[in-house]
Design goal:
Oligomer: single chain
Distance between the termini: 33 Å
Number of strands: 9
Radius of gyration: 15 Å
Number of domains: 1
Structural class: alpha/beta
Strand content: 15-25%
Helix content: 25-40%
Shape: globular
CATH architecture: Alpha-Beta Complex
Strand order of the largest sheet: 7-1-2-6-3-5-4-8-9
Order of helices and strands: HEEHEHEHEHEHEEE
Length: 186
């Protein structure tokens, strides 16, 4: 299947309310439309992940994050821009601009401007940011290969594909935009 056909199939599956698996900079991720609560709940159920933890929004275009970046100071935005695109996820205040099925119990939302070619192209084909969380059931190691995704989820996903991960051994780093503090080392 060609790369462009993969993109179209993956974007269509997300737009239709599906949950897909795709490669990221370090591991395989599960993705869905963040504006579709049924899709998000299905993803959470597949992972056995509690809603309260919140999810990461990923895009290949920082413009897809809309007003979420507008309330940051110049220094905060400069810190973020120095790491994007790339494998750094930033926690930014959401000021109730995202639904609770994305933010969980937090007053911030996790955003990453991805540099992974397939994932970046997927978000452009979809036309916005997507939920992206590691492709593994809670308590299991994140999938680093497509065969691991299939072992974990079998035929429960609407699309699995997009090539290889970026090869990073560590998960994406998570930083707090307000303080610059590293929440999870990458």
């Amino acid at each position: 299947m060609s790369s462009s056909l993969n993109l179209v199939s993956a974007a269509r599956a997300i737009a239709d309310g599906g949950v897909i698996a795709h490669p990221t900079e370090s591991v395989w991720g599960l993705a869905c439309d963040p504006s579709n609560p049924d899709a998000v709940h299905r993803l959470l159920q597949l992972k056995n992940r509690p809603l309260e933890k919140g999810l990461i929004l990923v895009s290949g275009d920082a413009g897809h994050f809309g007003g979420l970046l507008h309330n940051l100071s110049g220094d905060q935005r400069a810190r973020i821009d120095a790491t994007w695109p790339g494998p750094v996820t930033w926690l930014v205040p959401h000021f109730d601009q995202v639904p609770p099925w994305i933010s969980g119990i937090h007053h911030s939302v996790a955003l990453r401007h991805t540099a992974h070619p397939f994932t970046a192209a997927l978000t452009r084909a979809f036309g916005g940011a997507i939920v992206s969380t590691s492709a593994n059931p809670a308590g299991c190691q994140p999938a680093r290969h497509k065969f691991q995704v299939l072992r974990y989820f079998g035929d429960q996903l609407d699309f699995v594909g997009g090539g290889d991960t970026g090869g990073r051994r560590a998960p994406s780093e998570i930083r707090d935009a307000a303080s610059g503090r590293i929440v999870r080392a990458g």
